[in-house]
Design a protein that fits this description.
This protein has 771 residues and is mostly beta strands. It has 3 domains: 2-96, Immunoglobulin-like (Sandwich), CATH 2.60.40.10; 115-224, Beta Complex (Ferric Hydroxamate Uptake Protein, Chain A, domain 1); 225-770, Maltoporin, Chain A. Helix content is 4%, strand content 58%. It is built from 5 helices and 50 strands. It has a 22-stranded antiparallel beta barrel. Strands 9-16-17-12-13 form a 5-stranded mixed beta sheet, with no helix packed on it. Strands 1, 4, 7 and 8 form a 4-stranded mixed beta sheet that branches. The radius of gyration is 27 Å and the shape is globular. Residues 12-19 and 101-106 have low confidence and may be disordered.
Length: 771
């Protein structure tokens, strides 16, 4: 196996020699803030070779010696043309100037106008926070996780939830990265807000398929989020004051044009209204979240830049002194960019990430706490080698140590609840990858690569054996040693073939393994969901996905159209036995069932990029199923997130230079659910009887949201402000959040269903400012 990998690497590096080639390289930045520009285009005029900047603004373009006119461009910025005499390798660092006023247009375009047609990458979508600022969401907060739920192949986790599903996969199968650090639970207030303060975010990339070789660990998608670096030119601040939350971001140079910092904070203040209550229990209660993003960068010299970034967020809920529940994420990333030469770029990262939750109950006869923590340390090394104008090789390695402290219960001596302490579980995940982005002809573009993953189940701890019924039949204690290896090869491939200048066909295949498993029995990702690493009993999840698609642009790239179809097979899927006990259970692995899954669908996407009216329409026709020997008689059944139809319409209209209107309409088939098929009586108490798993559906869901943003023509260039008005669920649709069953009052022979709706119509208003 290792010989195969080595041979593949040799082939990747065996690119043809480029006679008499010289290299133009450099870094592109925003002239007003000094922020590096991700995905900016560097192109030789009149149809010559082109390239784009990487995640750190660096580019490298190999050309024959000669004189060229090179265009530097980035959406929302003034293009710039440089005359370059390339007699030898040349460094060209440049700054692009933002367009002060886009007049009567709203631009939602990706970085390169026809990138969706020409790029071999498939199943990827890129956008910045500026591009989604007029998309209305609940409570008027700009929210990237709520926005990606409006894209084809991406489903929301439910009313108001920031949880999401991609191409029929589970919510735990999405890798969410913030400056390369894993975020485990990306929700505030149980999903009504995401953990990401949009003011602090620079760029977002979502991969639904054809996932590049540098990513691994989740089998459905990768959401790669980059934080703002900080303004290297001048001090600036911006923020907003809303009905239930406010935010503030401050950034400034430390040494002008060399180093800077950015700090962004956000907090809700619903708990402050509780303080005015005359009820002592209520005014002692807690209901809030806060988060803090910070980043510092320092340019050591032209070849070396250091970045330090971090995130801390916490939710705190509680009722008087009787109950408290808090949870939060912490991340820290240290990155060193080094340019070895004009062709070789390096990024070295040290990353820390954790997620914790604590539950405390203190009443007359009950006093206990439940706590859980997941923590990882990660070392990464990534290289990019720009072999030629049509050939880029990326390679690197990753070493991740993961430790999970399962939910343990600690009770006081006076309570009837027994304390339970569970062994921690640890895993060491080592990966190496190599990929080649190659354009062998003007029409054909390829990205292919391999990822080699070795997951080591680590001690110390007691590991159990279980029989077919989930009963523990043996145990063995291991010390600080490797208990088991899981070695997997993950091939990746994407290709694009240009039919003409405006259209192309694409195909992709990827295999991915996943060694971290989130155990949940709801459609929402709750803070109390359990995490487990692969073990003796739990094998890595594996997914194989193939996709093909047709892509076409119209009217000088003002309109983008695509249709993609995919099929995904998922092995070693996890579900629960009926009546499974998930909390503080040392034999939790015995409660698990293992099976397979499949998902397939068709995604349509039409997007208008510019003009007074812009936005997109996305429609997904899909199926997601699972199969387990111990469920549904071993037959295929719908996954909870299975939806036949999913439609989103997003529109933004520049009414004038001061007013911009926004609207979203969503419709989707109701989630699959398990309803009782009958009932029986035990000891005088009625019990419901369940048969087919997920054999029923919730009612269809639909909703219209509206927004209006007023940004007066500013006379003071140093201070800008705007007002955003929003209406969530504009026609007050009472969408079902829960459907439950009960005996009819006064007649126990009749069972009735009742529906709980979470939101009706919700108005919002936010004042935004920047100086």
């Amino acid at each position: 196996m290792l010989r195969i990998v080595f041979a593949f690497i040799v082939v990747l590096f065996a690119v043809p020699a480029l006679a008499q080639q010289v290299v133009l390289s450099g870094v592109l930045r925003d002239s007003q803030s000094g922020e590096t520009l991700i995905g900016a285009v560097v192109a030789v005029e009149n149809g010559g070779p082109s390239t784009s900047t990487n995640a750190y603004g660096f580019y490298s373009l190999s050309l024959p010696a000669g004189k060229y006119r090179v265009q530097l461009s980035y959406v929302g910025f003034q293009s710039r043309v440089e005359e370059v005499d390339l007699s030898s390798n040349k460094r060209l660092n440049a700054e692009l100037t933002p367009l002060d006023n886009l007049l009567d247009e709203v631009v939602v375009s990706a970085k390169k106008k026809d990138n969706n047609v020409r790029d071999a990458q498939m199943g990827a979508m890129n956008f910045s926070m500026e591009e989604i600022k007029n998309v209305p969401v609940v409570f008027g907060e700009k929210d990237l996780l709520k926005t990606i739920q409006l894209l084809p192949g991406v489903q929301s986790g439910g009313e108001g939830s920031s949880n999401f599903y991609v191409r029929g996969g589970g919510s735990d199968q999405n890798l969410i990265l913030l400056d390369e650090a894993t975020v485990y639970n990306a929700s505030h207030l149980l999903g009504f807000f995401s953990t990401f303060n949009s003011d602090a975010i620079k760029d977002v990339e979502l991969y639904k398929g054809g996932i590049p070789s540098q990513f691994g660990g989740r089998i459905s998608s990768v959401l790669d989020i980059a934080m703002m670096d900080g303004n290297q030119k001048r001090f600036s601040a911006e923020g907003g004051i809303g009905l239930i939350a406010s935010r503030l971001k401050v950034e400034a140079p430390i040494v002008k044009d060399k180093s800077s910092f950015m700090i962004s904070g956000r907090r809700t203040y619903a708990d402050m209204f509780l303080k005015v209550s005359k009820d002592e229990d209520i005014n002692k209660s807690k209901l809030y979240f806060y988060d803090l993003n910070a980043k510092l960068n320092y340019k050591l010299d032209d070849r070396n830049t250091l970045y330090i970034s971090g995130y801390f967020g916490k939710d705190d809920l509680g009722y008087s002194d009787l109950f408290s529940f808090d949870w939060g994420n912490t991340t820290a990333t240290v990155r060193w960019n080094h340019i070895f030469n004009e062709k070789l770029f390096s990024n070295t990262s040290l990353i820390y990430s954790d997620f914790t939750y604590n539950v405390a109950v203190n009443s007359d006869d009950t006093d206990f706490t439940i706590a859980s923590k997941i923590r990882n340390w990660n070392a990464k090394q990534d290289f990019s080698y720009y072999a030629g104008p049509n050939s880029t090789v990326r390679f690197g390695w990753n070493a991740l140590h993961q430790a999970i402290h399962p939910a343990s219960l600690e009770a006081s001596e006076s309570t009837s609840v027994n304390s339970i302490s569970l062994d921690s579980r640890q895993g060491f995940d080592v990966s190496a990858y190599v990929s080649h982005e190659w354009k062998p002809s003007d029409r054909l573009s390829l990205i292919y690569g391999l990822r080699l993953n070795d997951f080591m189940v680590m001690g110390p701890g007691t590991f159990y054996d279980f029989d077919d019924e989930g009963e523990a039949i043996g145990e063995q204690y291991y010390g600080s040693q490797i208990v088991k290896h899981y070695l997997n090869i993950e091939p990746r491939f994407s290709a694009s073939y240009l039919l003409n200048e405006k259209s192309s066909v694409k195909a992709s295949y990827n295999r991915i393994v996943q060694n971290l498993h989130q155990l949940t029995n709801t459609t929402s990702s709750l803070p109390t969901d359990q995490y487990m690493v692969s073990s003796i009993n739990i094998k890595p999840q594996i997914a194989d996905q193939v996709a093909v698609g047709y892509f076409r642009n119209f009217f000088d790239n003002s309109y983008e159209f695509s249709v993609e179809t995919y099929y995904k097979y998922m092995g070693n899927q996890i579900d629960f036995r009926n009546g499974a006990d998930l909390q503080a259970n040392r034999y939790l692995e015995g409660e698990l069932l293992f099976g397979i899954g499949r998902a397939y669908g068709l995604e349509w996407y039409l997007r208008k990029n510019e003009g007074k009216l812009s936005g997109w329409i996305s429609y997904t026709l899909a199926k997601s199923e699972r199969k387990f020997d111990g469920i549904n008689n071993g037959d295929w059944f719908r996954a909870r997130q299975d939806r036949t139809h999913d439609l989103s319409i997003v529109a933004m209209y520049a009414l004038s230079k001061s007013w911009t209107l926004g609207s979203t309409f969503t419709f989707h088939t109701g989630n699959a659910v398990t309803f009782p098929s009958g009932k029986y009586e035990v000891g005088g108490q009625s019990m419901f009887y369940y048969t087919e798993r997920n054999g029923y559906r919730m009612p269809n869901y639909h909703r219209l949201d509206l927004s209006a943003t007023y940004e007066p023509v500013q006379k003071n260039k140093r201070f800008n402000s705007s007002w955003t008005f929003g209406v969530y669920n504009a026609y007050n649709r009472r969408n079902a959040y829960i459907i439950d069953f009960r005996e009819k009052e006064g007649n126990s022979n009749i069972t009735e269903a009742y529906q709980v709706a979470l939101f009706g119509i919700i108005p919002s208003v936010t004042w935004n400012f920047k100086f």
